[in-house]
Amino acid sequence: MIMAAGLGTRMRPLTDACPKPMVKVGGKPMLDHVLEKLVAAGIGRAVVNVHYLARMIETHLARRSSPQIIISDERDALLETGGGLARAMPLIAADLFFCLNSDSLWTDGATDVFRQLSAAWDDAVMDALLLLVPLARARNHDGPGDFELGANGQLQRRTAQTASHVFTGIQLVSKRLLRDLPPQDSFSTNILWQRALGEGRLFGTVHDGDWVEVGRPEHIRVAEEILALE
Question: Which of 86, 102, 144, 183 is surrounded by the most beta carbons within 10 Å?
């Protein structure tokens, strides 16, 4: 699943008339960068959620022959990340699926991120496996970090002023994470992660390639420099 329903307010004025996933980096929409990574990894089907300026995204995706695109329509309400996942669940046949943010771009390391996550997955103990980068290598990220990574890969929330690792927006998820959902339609994935943390079922693995967040217009130049090195 590719999360593409956000308003992109930090990317204004570029998103005044363009949905954030369609903002170009290196001459093509960020959404295309992500989709091409899926195709290169042999992933043939993707669910893409839409809300803001949804028709522009749908029209663009209709021109693609691969991967197969299924639209999860959120025009009626902005559902946040967790609500968007819940809305899309009937469209995702497999119990285990990748979930990616459309504004996170990366270069692969020794292997592609999908194979890395798959190799690290342990279904007996995990509900979600998050791809992380060390805070020092999180390009364009101006936050304090997200998680501490235990020796066995288990995650803990930041307890100090900064955390050692940043979530890249790329994760491997079991539908177990989506059980017992909040009563409201709109909610953050953080609610689901928090339960998994309490149960010791939220894990992480460290990406050894480059990763760049593209949240504001000034981030584009850095992203283009990184992708040019791939």
Answer: 102
